[in-house]
Design goal:
278 residues, 9 helices, 3-stranded parallel beta sheet
Length: 278
């Protein structure tokens, strides 16, 4: 009788263990692609780059890049969990393990390389400014002096302008580019600065067409990379291999045309993986 009690208890423990294993089957698998989930950080408020649509879909160039890379790592589309990562939270999200990698208009620079690693770059953008279509007062970056200049918290764009080009610019930082755009439309601010790819995406939205224009200053080179946990050389190689394949098989060009074509964005050719343009 005592033996049967012990056996029954052991069976119950085994059943609980199997249940726990099954419940954990949707966790990340580190890139082995065995059907588990992968969480990828993206932006959800940047048209053309990363946008969450009203019906819950994710679209944009970064989304296409992230999906292609995940597929090469062995994941199906339904295995991907997209997670919003704001500019100020990207390094923390990677370090904490909240995401496997980040594709979110994430420019590679020395400061960020102290905390995370990057695969890529996969896009060369340039910093520019967006102004109202009827504003002809800003003809050079220096004209931003004494103007109200907006960018988002955690982004380097506005700081670049203030430190190097227009030290008297009145810097305004908001939580997202959409807030900057609203301020620009309502004349609360005079200019929005970030990468030309992002600005082109906003300007091309149907409800904003004709209201804004790009200045075309090309103030900096912004090498978009995929952010990874520091020291994960194996994942970095796999992601770089995936990006190289995306360029070589024509998928990169198709993604550029699909996401930026409507805005007549004059993109740079696909960068060579590992080549950072200064």
């Amino acid at each position: 009788m005592q033996l049967r009690k012990v056996t029954a208890a052991s069976a119950a423990v085994l059943a609980l263990a199997l249940t726990a294993t099954a419940c954990g089957s949707d966790k990340e698998d580190g890139g082995s692609g065995d059907g588990k989930k992968i969480t990828i950080g993206i932006k959800i408020d940047q048209p053309g780059i990363g946008l969450k649509t009203p019906d819950g879909k994710y679209v944009g160039f970064d989304v296409d890049v992230a999906t292609y890379v995940a597929k090469e790592l062995g994941y199906k589309a339904e295995d991907i969990v997209f997670k919003e990562t704001k500019s100020a939270d990207r390094e923390t999200a990677i370090e904490r393990g909240d995401v496997k990698f980040i594709a979110a208009s994430y420019s590679i620079n020395d400061e960020r390389l102290q905390k995370v690693d990057f695969a890529g770059p996969y896009l060369l953008a340039h910093q520019d400014i967006l102004v109202r279509a009827d504003d002809d007062s800003i003809k050079s970056p220096e004209d931003l002096n004494n103007k109200k200049l907006c960018s988002v918290t955690g982004s380097t764009s506005a700081k670049n302008v203030k430190d190097k080009l227009a030290p008297k610019a009145q810097l305004q930082t908001y939580g997202g580019y959409s807030e900057c755009l609203t301020g620009l439309e309502n004349k609360v601010i005079d200019a929005l600065t970030t990468d030309d790819s992002i600005l082109a995406g906003y300007a091309s939205q149907q409800n904003f067409q004709g209201k804004f224009k790009l200045a075309g200053f090309k103030m900096t080179n912004e090498n978009y990379g995929i952010g990874l946990k520091k020291g994960d050389a194996d994942l970095k190689k796999k992601v770089n291999d995936a990006l190289t394949k995306m360029v070589s098989d024509g998928s990169w060009d198709k993604a550029v045309e699909a996401n930026f074509g409507p805005a007549n964005y004059k993109n740079e050719p696909a960068p060579k993986i590992g080549n950072i343009v200064k």
